Please model this.
Amino acid sequence: MPGSKILASAHYLPSDIVTNDDLSRIMDTNDTWIQSHTGIETRHISLQGENTSDLATQAALLALKDTNLTPNDIDVIIVTTFTPDGLAPSTAALVQRNLKAEKAWAYDIMTACAGFVFGLSTADKFIRSGAYKNILLIASEVNSKMMDFSDRTSTVFFGDGAGAVVLTADDSHQGVVVGEDLHTIGNPDVVHSGRIAPLTELSATNYPKTDAFSQMGHDVFNEVTTLIPDHITDFLASKQLTPHDIDYFIPHQANLRLIEYIANALNEPLDKFSTNVIRNGNTSSAGIAIGFDELNKTSDLIGKKVLLTGFGAGFTYGSLLLEF
Model:
């Protein structure tokens, strides 16, 4: 039975960089408050008309460029996003069209900030089934289009971006994914975005309306700090490992303070953790994909253990253990 090998990774960020001072000009906030509460200094915002499928396409092209594959070699395209171009067609279908990947079928996964973890788990299983050889997995978010820019408690956290990996079947190895532990706890109130209310009457004035992103920040922080350190510790223990055995941690890039809390709870140094949130803000499902690409480009991962941990809206969380 084949396992998954990661052939290449890449990420793409919109060209416009928005600082905390930029945000302070349109809402009641300031750089000192944002940095002290979130650790975020800048974020990339899509202000040039690029939508989620556009960011995803660019990340995919960059990843494919580092392989000997063409778009026609791809069997499946998976896009993880909770900021799709629209409900239909899927963002993945638009990427498939953009790439001219005529042999691929494509679909979206919507598990918000845990999306890349759930997507990689899914792609790995498709490959292990033996039915598919090459899979393009992309996490892409244009969070800015869903924000209420009068809501300083949420908007200051978020940025836009995309990350991609190309996976292929590897018959000579067990595969890069050596363990996983995924969970969902349905909670409609802590984090939500894009709600469309059902009709209450038949009227010619009815027109669909969607709500902006909203989160109960303290509840999110409490949920994460209560669940995630124990989740990581218990998952690793099930593999006869401890946090000390992990070479690199790539958690969801929610905010720097949460990452610092998790590192402290695991008694591991912060320099083992991805912290691209400082430069990019919270890019939802793309944050882990971007963090992996940065690690993949700067480190020799042969023989290393990497833990990906996603957590987010809904409430969905989980970890994948990668070994290279």
User: Anything to note?
Assistant: The mean pLDDT is 94. The longest strand covers residues 160-170. Residues 179 and 321 are 5 Å apart (CA to CA).
